[in-house]
UniProtKB/TrEMBL annotation:
Taxonomic superkingdom: Bacteria
Organism for this UniProt entry: Deinococcus oregonensis
Domain Glycosyl hydrolase family 13 catalytic intervals: 91-535
Alphabetized Pfam families for the sequence: Alpha-amylase, Amylosucrase_C-like
The protein's name in its UniProt record: Amylosucrase
Alphabetical list of CDD domains matching this protein: AmyAc_Amylosucrase
PANTHER family the UniProt entry points to: ALPHA AMYLASE CATALYTIC REGION, ALPHA-AMYLASE FAMILY MEMBER
């Protein structure tokens, strides 16, 4: 359908010939990706869907503001904008960071001072009242949570951020909506159009068949994947609704083309409000298939590719970030392989990097880290990773049995060790975390806790032990050095730049008490942030100063462009991780000591990678690589560049 000449039919819909030409050129560029993927998923229903979609796209193009259209053209001229070394991300809850959306505007100077160019405000679209999974049970995608402001406030903030060179990032929950969402309400009212937006069954026959292969996301407080709803059935009878996450979150039926159209419309509506990056929440779950885990199905990637193509026709400044916390062999498909290469999401979380950082800090051994990275397939060069030391979520020990075995470990045994270590149960542990979602059937235990508390700062301060405190600070800075030096978009979680500890007052709030992930979602300590220079020797000041130095070093190091991948180099010392980047300007070798001991590292290996001379991009110091050993201080991070390239 899109391969025929549409110009004559579509041009009358535009008042301006230049506007029409822009739209038609983009349709020509992205139309095949859109149509081909839709036909795989929807077959004969595709032609009708495309007709509806063209109406949505043309309307969105007409209503897109001139400054956003200018941003579209700028991004087309600089398609690697998300890959630049100066791209620093910051992740925060609006209310916990600044109270309201207007309050965030008042804190732009702070964000600019950190070098932030990418601001992810955690779920702020209107959720259901009461329990709402931290905002991920959305009742209205076209409204803002009332206590944070309204859609005009969101547009104003996006414009202000854009003026400061900061991109606004929002969550878009794709797998489910709140039970109270208009679509679900109409479905419960018996409307057959909207009943087909969901997976609703009259009895347990189909749910039981699916459950045989479905995992449980929240086994503690939301076991199973289906919920009986007394209003969900036909003729006012009850029905079993697919609810992967919580009983109040109804999974959407993406097998219905109308759901695709709805989300294309929603994304463009929010893009025209100024949102530049969409975090595609729960993307892995959107396609259901009997006899599987109903995750990572091929249709997921076709649907994402089609959505991306549709949005590029109207708003090519917009990027997609896949929230897919899955195995590396599955993760790479969210950035695109084979026909989808580089055409799915622009960015995906490198969750494995975060897990391996904490694993190596606990074990003081980087062999598993090295093994896991060596097994990672290469990503498309036009995509990027989102890396973080911590995020808003718990830590699940996503370590494959195959990687563990190659590193000489037992997968179950090592995961058990990490859960013990970071919950403080393991002898000699420096960490203070909380067990989240213990699954007795599998033995899995995930961990909640702030970066500083998991790194040992809370235990050290409680003990009044200066050496432990020093080690905790160094651990935190090492972890940040790894994420900042990996080559994607480093995402700083609010408060980590101040080494904020666990906030146990979450248990006093009835809305938060059942979910201990709120222990690492503290309110921003502005008094600490504004007075941090008063005593440069406090842990918060040391972390803040060290982190700012790392960010500055990253911003002046072109070798960290995300089109280049970090590749593990086999290390002769298990305490030391080596990551090599082959940039046109020369080789960069990152060297990380994951132990509290000084390491005498064999210099020949550094010399083989870099030659006789190198410069540490972090400290600006010169290294002559001629001695037999190079001494690495505890938790030392080096970003070594070939010196002759810079002379």
């Amino acid at each position: 359908m899109l391969k025929t000449d549409l110009a004559a039919r579509l041009r009358p819909a535009f008042d301006d010939d230049r506007d029409a030409e822009t739209f038609l050129l983009r349709l020509e560029r992205y139309g095949a990706d859109l149509e081909d993927s839709l036909r795989v998923v929807y077959g004969d229903a595709t032609d009708a869907l495309i007709t509806d979609l063209l109406e949505v796209l043309i309307h969105a193009h007409h209503t897109r503001a001139p400054d956003l259209k200018r941003l579209d053209e700028a991004r087309l001229l600089r398609p690697d904008w998300l890959q630049s070394p100066d791209m620093i991300g910051y992740v925060a809850y609006t209310d916990r960071f600044a109270g309201t959306l207007r309050g965030v505007q008042e804190r732009l100077e702070y964000l600019e001072g950190l070098g932030v160019k990418y601001l992810h405000l955690m779920p702020l679209l209107r959720p259901r009242e009461g329990e709402n999974d931290g905002g991920y049970a959305v009742q209205d995608y076209r409204a803002v949570r009332p206590d944070l402001g309204d859609m005009d406030d969101l547009s104003a903030l996006a414009a202000k951020l854009r003026g400061h060179g900061i991109s606004l990032v929002l969550d878009l929950v794709l797998n489910h909506v709140a039970r109270e969402h208009e679509w679900a309400a109409k479905a419960r009212g018996g409307d057959p159009v909207y009943r087909d937006y969901f997976h609703i069954y009259p009895d347990r026959t189909q749910p039981d068949a699916y459950e045989r292969t479905l995992p449980e996301v929240f086994p503690d407080f939301a076991p199973g994947n289906f919920t009986w709803d007394t209003e969900a059935g036909e003729d006012g009878a009850g029905g079993w609704v697919w609810t992967t996450f919580n009983s109040y979150q109804w999974d959407l039926n993406w097998g219905n083309p109308a759901v695709f159209r709805e989300f294309a419309d929603l994304i463009l509506h929010l893009a025209n409000r100024g949102v530049e990056v969409f975090r595609l929440d729960a993307i892995a779950f959107i396609w259901k298939r009997l006899g599987t885990a109903s995750q990572n199905q091929p249709e997921v990637h076709h649907l994402t590719r089609a959505l991306r193509a549709a949005i590029r026709i109207v708003a090519p400044a917009v990027a997609f970030k896949a929230e897919a916390i899955v195995a590396p062999s599955d993760l790479i498909h969210y950035l695109g392989t084979r026909d989808h290469h580089g055409k799915v999401s622009d960015m995906a979380y490198q969750n494995s990097l975060m897990v391996q950082i904490w694993s190596s800090l606990a074990s003081r051994d980087t062999r598993l880290f090295e093994t896991a990275l060596l097994a990672f397939p290469p990503k498309p060069t036009n995509t990027t990773w989102g890396m973080y030391v911590r995020c808003h979520d718990d830590i699940g020990w996503a370590i494959s049995d195959e990687d563990a075995e190659r590193a000489g470990l037992s997968g179950p045994g090592h995961r058990h060790f990490l859960s013990d270590f970071y919950s403080g149960e393991h002898p000699g542990s420096f960490a203070r975390g909380l067990v989240f979602q213990y699954n007795p059937a599998t033995g899995d235990r995930r961990i909640s806790g702030s970066a500083a508390s998991l790194a040992g700062l809370e235990v050290a301060l409680d003990a009044g032990n200066a050496e432990w405190t020093d080690h905790a600070v160094r651990r935190l800075l090492l972890a940040h050095a790894v994420t900042l030096g990996f080559g994607g978009v480093p995402l700083l979680y609010m408060g980590d730049e101040l080494a904020l500890l666990n906030d146990y007052t979450f248990a006093d709030d009835p809305a938060h008490a059942p979910d201990n992930r709120w222990v690492h979602r503290p309110k921003m300590d502005w008094a600490l942030a504004e007075g941090i220079q008063a005593d440069p020797n406090t842990p918060a000041a040391r972390v803040n100063t060290g982190l700012r130095a790392l960010i500055a070093a990253r911003q002046r190091t072109p070798h960290l462009h995300a089109s280049i991948e970090s590749r593990a180099v086999p290390s002769p010392d298990p305490h030391v991780l080596l990551l090599r980047r082959e940039h046109p300007l020369g080789v960069m070798l990152c060297v990380y000591n994951f132990s509290e001991h000084e390491v005498a590292f064999p210099t020949y290996l550094l010399r083989d990678q870099l030659g006789e001379h190198a410069i540490d991009a972090v400290a600006g110091t010169h290294f002559t690589l001629q001695r037999a050993t190079t001494r690495l201080a505890p938790f030392r991070a080096l970003w070594l560049l070939q010196a002759e390239v810079l002379s």
